Amino acid sequence: MNITMENMKKERIADYAELYMSVFNAPPWNDLWSEDTAQRRISEMMSADTFIGKAAYIDDVPVGFIIGQTEQGDVSVQFCLREFCVKTTAQNKGIGTSLLNALKADLKKQGITHIYLITSHGENTEGFYQRRGFKTVSEIVMTNDL
Q: pTM score, two decimals?
């Protein structure tokens, strides 16, 4: 198995969307992404001037990606991790950790020292991040519907 990691490429959006749908339309999320909506979501994020994204490939087929954007804070720039997925059959093989570490290395080179994200509670989601040094905070308030 030959795993490579590189910056995401706009010409691979259709491949990333297929991966995105396969992960997020399955449990525990059970979303309803279509090819069109998944491609639009990824394309919108990749079009941001502050976009950063890394993808993992096995034999040139995407099996995971991590994407987000930098944001100016009051005294520093931080990174908002927007989407992170690894193909279900490729999970628990270190690919997610490798993607996160590759992203962190890129961010450190840019002087960025803080990552934040929103995820659901649970061992496979929140637990993944906690085992890698992220902290759950209870001070956040979110709304679901307007």
A: 0.90
